[in-house]
Design brief:
The protein is of the alpha/beta class. It is built from 6 helices and 6 strands, in the order E-H-E-H-E-E-H-E-H-E-H-H. The protein has one domain: Rossmann fold (3-Layer(aba) Sandwich), CATH 3.40.50. Helix content is 36%, strand content 17%. A hairpin with a 2-residue loop joins strand 3 and strand 4. Bound molecules: flavin mononucleotide. The site of flavin mononucleotide (FMN) has 17 residues, from helix 1 and strand 3.
């Protein structure tokens, strides 16, 4: 079984990467698994340019992204994965630009403009999302549900976990950032964040256990 984790956070040592790593460890805890964690901010790539090559009725081009950059081998790995884990912080009420660009390049070749909108990839891949943010997670439920239903349709069964009121800075007093309840944020980081990572671990394990 093949596990791929895609980290769409700029920092490898903070909330999103840590929680995604827990999801990855959960999936990897099953026997006979191989896996890899890829950090999108290490790569040089762009989002979909809308060339429509992936919709051409040509077996060499259909359902493949024609763009050639650092994301090209990652997309092949994602298509071949049994479980794909995607982690992103919320930036301005959305996933990060890098995560979004990955998603465009991966999701768009996975569908046609045919009436049946049938998915094109040769196999179904389970998708687990990991989101971290400041605002209470309820604020973004509709957005997360939209991503899950898009992944369900194009890629495979999908679910998500999240952590909110995350700790962003070690010493908030050094920053223009007095809107935060620092005591609450720090307490959550100690008490709640490990539980959020446990939930991510369980999601990774569940997805790996139920893959087709
Ligand atoms: C550019 C930027 C924009 C952000 N926008 C939002 C936002 O719209 N909503 C929110 O809840 N948190 C927002 N945040 C906070 C992050 O989502 C949150 O701190 C997240 O846990 C950071 O992930 P990291 O620790 O992995 O870097 C933003 C942070 C940055 C840097």
């Amino acid at each position: 079984m093949n596990i791929l984790a895609i980290c769409g956070a700029g920092n490898k040592n903070r909330n999103t990467a840590a929680m995604l790593k827990s999801a990855f460890d959960g999936a990897m805890s099953l026997p006979c698994t191989t896996g890899e964690m890829i950090y999108l901010y290490d790569l040089n790539f762009r989002g979909c340019i809308g060339c429509h090559s992936c919709k051409l009725l040509d077996e060499n081009r259909f359902a493949h992204c024609a763009m050639r950059d650092d994301l090209t081998p990652v997309l092949e790995k994602a298509i071949a994965a049994d479980v794909l884990l995607i982690g992103s912080p919320i930036y301005f009420s959305d996933i990060t630009g890098e995560t979004r660009s990955f998603m465009e390049r991966y999701f768009f070749p996975g569908i046609t403009y045919n009436k049946d909108r049938a998915p094109t990839y040769p196999k179904r891949t389970k998708v687990g999302w990991v989101f971290t943010m400041n605002a209470p997670g309820e604020v973004y439920r509709d957005f997360f549900d939209g991503l899950v239903s898009m992944a369900n349709r194009i890629i495979g069964d999908s679910e998500y976990v999240m952590a909110y009121h995350t700790q962003q800075m070690e010493d908030y007093s050094k920053y223009a950032a007095n809107m935060f309840d620092v005591e609450m944020v720090k307490r959550r980081h100690i008490e709640q964040f490990p539980k959020d990572c446990d939930a991510a671990f369980e999601m990774g394990k569940r997805l790996a256990m139920t893959h087709e």
